[in-house]
From TrEMBL:
This is Succinate dehydrogenase assembly factor 3. It holds the Pfam family Complex1_LYR_2. Keywords: Chaperone, Mitochondrion, Transit peptide. It is found in: Mitochondrion matrix. Interacts with the iron-sulfur protein subunit within the SDH catalytic dimer. PANTHER family: DC11 ACN9 HOMOLOG, SUCCINATE DEHYDROGENASE ASSEMBLY FACTOR 3, MITOCHONDRIAL. GO terms for biological process: mitochondrial respiratory chain complex II assembly; succinate metabolic process. Belongs to the complex I LYR family. SDHAF3 subfamily. Its main location: mitochondrion. Plays an essential role in the assembly of succinate dehydrogenase (SDH), an enzyme complex (also referred to as respiratory complex II) that is a component of both the tricarboxylic acid (TCA) cycle and the mitochondrial electron transport chain, and which couples the oxidation of succinate to fumarate with the reduction of ubiquinone (coenzyme Q) to ubiquinol. Promotes maturation of the iron-sulfur protein subunit of the SDH catalytic dimer, protecting it from the deleterious effects of oxidants. May act together with SDHAF1. Coiled coil: none annotated. GO terms for cellular component: mitochondrial intermembrane space; mitochondrial matrix.
Length: 125
C-alpha cells in the first residue's frame, strides 16, 4: 500500500476515536472496540474493497461529527446517534456483514451491556 493510503487510514482511525469521546461512555467503549476490530480486519483487503471501506468510514465520521455537534447545541433534548440504513445498501451486504450488523445492533440496544465503565466519583470527606 502506498504511504499516502496508510497515512489516510491512520488519520481517519484517529479521527473516529476522537469523535467517540463525544459519545456516552457505553457507546464509546462499544464503538472503539468495533472500529479497532474492523480496521484490523481490513488491513489486508484489495484496493477496491479498501476504497469502499474508507469511504464508508469517512461518511460515518462525518455523520458522527454532525450529530455530536447537534447534541452539544441541544443539550436539553434526548441525545440520538446513528442513521437508518436504506434497504438498497443492506442488499449489497454479504451474509457475514449482516450478521455483524445484527450483533452490533443487539449489543448497542441491550440494557446491560457487556462493557463495564466505572463512573468517576468524587471522594467522600
Amino acid at each position: 500500500m502506498p504511504a499516502g493510503h496508510v497515512s489516510r487510514v491512520r488519520a481517519l482511525y484517529r479521527r473516529i476515536l476522537l469523535l467517540h469521546r463525544g459519545l456516552p461512555p457505553d457507546l464509546k467503549a462499544l464503538g472503539d472496540q468495533y472500529v479497532k476490530d474492523e480496521f484490523r480486519r481490513h488491513k489486508t483487503v484489495g484496493s477496491d474493497e479498501a476504497q469502499r471501506f474508507l469511504q464508508e468510514w469517512e461518511v460515518y465520521a462525518s455523520v458522527l461529527w454532525q450529530q455530536t455537534n447537534e447534541n452539544r447545541q441541544n443539550s436539553t433534548e434526548r441525545v440520538c446517534f446513528g442513521v437508518s440504513l436504506p434497504e438498497e445498501k443492506l442488499n449489497d451486504f454479504r451474509d457475514e456483514q449482516i450478521g455483524q450488523l445484527q450483533e452490533l445492533m443487539q449489543e448497542a440496544t441491550k440494557p446491560n451491556r457487556q462493557f463495564s465503565i466505572p463512573e468517576s466519583r468524587k471522594p467522600e470527606f
